[in-house]
Amino acid sequence: EAQVTQNPRYLITVTGKKLTVTCSQNMNHEYMSWYRQDPGLGLRQIYYSMNVEVTDKGDVPEGYKVSRKEKRNFPLILESPSPNQTSLYFCASSFWTSSYNEQFFGPGTRLTVL
Amino acid sequence: AQTVTQSQPEMSVQEAETVTLSCTYDTSESDYYLFWYKQPPSRQMILVIRQEAYKQQNATENRFSVNFQKAAKSFSLKISDSQLGDAAMYFCAYRSGGRTSGSRLTFGEGTQLTVNP
User: Fold this and answer.
1) What are the tens digits of pLDDT across the range A6-23?
2) In the A/B pair of chains, how many CB contacts fall below 8 A?
3) CA of A79 vs chain B CAs: smallest distance (Å)
């Protein structure tokens, strides 16, 4: 089954404790992206990757890191989480083309930073 | 930079009736794509309908249709014969058609739709 998986689905942590949210896709997509969803703000892009070893900042990259060592994986790293990073996080992937292509979303990760 | 605005934080509709959700966007590009996503309580993002800017004909998917007004930069979603399962948060989204921007989506704030039995 074609899908994007994220782990963990729920996470409660404390300020300053490093964490990683994993994202994996099995569709051989070049493009992967992380979004955060906050009430009244919709989804905002954090980072994206156009292919292996190619990453770039989105709209709200502060406090986050990413890596793309393999095509299928795109982990999101919070090295020193703060309460303002409490949010719902989505990973998404798609093919990289100039024409229309559908983005596939993961199930979301609910993160709470105390 | 492109922006997407959904001016209705909440909407409600009676079961079997029709509701229209509004979305406006701002862009200087001529090549782009517009989407409506549904997010039910499960939080999964589900693509409802999409529209290519170069197409004049409004997209339709079963009970869902759009009213795409390119000059006015408006992209509303009409849900006909509303069902209880339509209750969800709906997001309007924009994607540039330019190759350099990749697949980045710019989302609106969302509209929470309630369907009353």
Assistant:
1) 999 999 999 999 999 999
2) 61
3) 25
